[in-house]
Amino acid sequence: MSFDQIADWFSLNSNLLINATWETIYMVGAAGLVGFIVGIPLGVILHTSKKGGLLENTRLNKALGAVVNIGRSVPFLVLMVAIIPVTKLLVGTFIGTTAAIVPLTIGAIPFVARLIEGALIEVPSGLVEAAQSMGATPLQIIHKVLLPEAMPTIINSVTITLVTLVSYSAMAGTVGGGGLGDVAIRYGFHRYDVTIMAVTVAMLIILVQIIQTIGDAVVRRVDHR
C-alpha cells in the first residue's frame, strides 16, 4: 500500500478504531475497578482466615476457596454464555459494551482474590509477629503491616489483572461485546479484511504495553525494599 492509500484507509476507519479503543478501555476499567473493590478484600479474607491466620476460620476459608476455585476454573467464553440471564437481569441486555462488563467483573474477582492472597503470603511472618507482640489488633496488622508491605506485589497483581482483562475483552467481541475484539471479528474476520485485523491486534498490544509500563513504574515507586 502506498502512503496515500494508508492515509485514506485510516481516514475511513479512524472513528471506528478510536471508538472501539475507548470501548475496550471502558470495559477493562469498569470491570477492573469492581473486581479490585471485591477481589482485594476477598483475598485478604482468604489469607487471614486460613489455619494459623490472623482471623483463623477454616470453614469460611474452605467455602470461599471453593467458590474462588470454581470461578477461576470456568473458561471466560463459557462464563459469558453461562451468566447471560444474570447479565440481562442486571443491565437489560446481554449484547454490547456495558453488558460485557458483567462477565468481565465476575471473571476478574476470583483472579484478583488469589493474586492478593499470594501477595500477602510473601509478607515475612516476623513482621506480623512483631506487630502482635506490640499489642496490635488483627485489623491494625492488616492495615498497617500486611497491605503496606505487600503493596509492590499488589500493584503488580493489579497490572496482571488489567492485562488479562484486555484479552478477556477481546474475547467478549466474539459475542457482540464491543471494543477492539468486536471490530476484529466483525470487520476483520467476517469480511476477510487482513489489514483491520492486524491493526486491531497492534492496538491491543499497544494498550497492554501501556498498562504494563505504567504498572512497572508504580511498582518501582512504591517498592522501598
From TrEMBL:
GO cellular component term, pick one: plasma membrane
Keywords: Cell membrane, Membrane, Transmembrane, Transmembrane helix, Transport
Location relative to the cell: Cell membrane
Membrane spanning residue stretches: 25-46, 66-84, 90-113, 154-176, 196-219
UniProt-listed CDD domains: TM_PBP2
SUPFAM superfamilies: MetI-like
Main location: membrane
Residue span, ABC transmembrane type-1 domain: 21-212
Gene3D superfamilies, alphabetized: MetI-like
Membrane topology of this protein: Multi-pass membrane protein
Stretch forming the signal peptide: none
GO BP field: D-methionine transmembrane transport
Pfam families: BPD_transp_1
Family note: Belongs to the binding-protein-dependent transport system permease family. CysTW subfamily.
NCBIfam families noted in UniProt: PRK10782.1
Protein name per its UniProtKB record: ABC transporter, permease protein
Organism in which the protein naturally occurs: Vibrio caribbeanicus ATCC BAA-2122
